[in-house]
Amino acid sequence: MMDAAVSSLLSGVPSCIVDGQTKFFHQAFTAADVNHHGYLSRSDLKIAMVAALGYKPAKFEVSRVLSTCDDLVDADGQRIPDGICLRHFVEGMQARCRLRDGAEVIRQIFVAFDRRCQGFLTVGDLKHAAASVAPRVPETTLESIFRELDRDGDGRVSYGDFDFMMRYHGPA
User: Fold this and answer.
1) Helices marked H in 10-138 — which ranges?
2) Less Cβ crowding at N or C end of the chain, within 10 Å?
3) pLDDT per residue over 78-90, tens digit each?
């Protein structure tokens, strides 16, 4: 049942195992390269990664991808710091998708639940998500689940609390 819920929640997030993956990454690169330089700056790369992966990457993720392209030069032969070319971007995104693990899936589920991009979940977020994947779950049950998740009782579930619940209290 958990797999069906995850699939449903992540239906808007690009799957890493699809035909045309390279084309999809190429389109994300092209859309982010608004100045048509043929490479992405750090800020352009963030935009492309959001399009390619479906979530805003952490600074270390952007830095890791940028570190793969140290031979980027402009038309005058000058090295471009903090830039990445199409080939390295596509290779980096493909490698990122191959390395996807449970933590990544948990992060994506959290992002899918966090519909207002606040960095935390409210009982309303939980009810909204449940309406899509489990519409028959009573509201009182959802409120009880939320109270259990909200370990400090502030009416918000942080990513840390959500991650803990998914890893140690989720279905086996």
Assistant:
1) 21-32, 42-53, 59-66, 86-98, 102-113, 123-133
2) C
3) 777 778 888 889 8
Short-list 154, 155, 161, CA closest to 143: 155
Residues 6 or more apart whose Cβ sits within 8 Å of residue 34: 44
Residue pointed to by tokens 């899509």: 132
List pLDDT tens digits, range 73-127: 666 777 777 788 888 898 888 887 766 666 777 888 888 888 888 889 999 999 9
Whether the CB-CB separation of 39 and 65 falls below 8 Å is answered with no
Beta bridge partners of 73: 79
Instruction: Please compute, for residue 116, the number of CA atoms within 13 A of its CA located in the half-sphere on the CB side.
Output: 9
